[in-house]
């Protein structure tokens, strides 16, 4: 029997076999996921959501924690390519520097899904979909709360210090831009100092200590790009003998449990929600991509704003 005929017969046999195996018994979908790190309560909830959704769907999840370092994410993506996973997904720690490795994934014909944070790439076809929040709008919402608060005391001016997220990350760049857009031109709202706290409690406390040392009682408001930095800063404010939430208003983003607890203690004034529960949408999108079905380029999530007045009522409903 010639090789060709044997090969054709072999292929036909395997096709018949595959058709006979029920879908659930076929090879499970394998997703390689590179996570930013474990820097905040938000990230912990995001990781739990992804792992839980993968487990429930019977997905084989290869999970890599990059400890907030881009080189670790590039390494993880290359490893997923070498392992020939079905889909690569990741939350890019920073916006730029992804073209080369994403071109390698494209050359290997492995689709890439972005979750949580976006990338800036020359060729948008390097990823199939981005599932996450509108960070510019989150920054606007934080500023709008402060604008409305200032209107209650029209004669008062507010000096603001800003704790930015990780340098170069989409949430840090966009939350800064959205906040600045809304306060721009308002003579009563002025940003005195702005510096990164890298989204962590420890760094948020450290930078707030420096702000207090240089600006002292001049500070009326803290705008933190995430609740973890705000919670660290609250400790610094108290250690300086000031009352967070009163002497210094605290405006933050994420909506994690720690922020609700701080609001219930009167130490934080408002948190703008940033939903980390992206697991189910990620798995569903990966399954559609694997099945060759079309998926939206941009999948957003619904989010709210939680001022301290609603904290007691809302806290029991929080899922993260
Ligand atoms: C936002 C996410 C940010 C959170 C932080 O989607 O990337 O990173 O706001 C987290 O808490 O560290």
TrEMBL record:
Signal peptide region: 1-25
Superkingdom field: Bacteria
Family annotation (InterPro entries): Peripla_BP_I, SBP_2_dom, TAT_signal
Gene Ontology CC terms, in alphabetical order: cell envelope
Keywords: Signal
Gene Ontology terms, MF aspect: carbohydrate binding
Pfam families: Peripla_BP_4
Main location: other
Cellular compartment(s): Cell envelope
CDD domains for the chain: PBP1_galactofuranose_YtfQ-like
Residue span(s) of domain Periplasmic binding protein: 31-289
Recorded family membership: Belongs to the bacterial solute-binding protein 2 family.
Record-given protein name: ABC transporter substrate-binding protein
Species assigned in the record: Telluria aromaticivorans
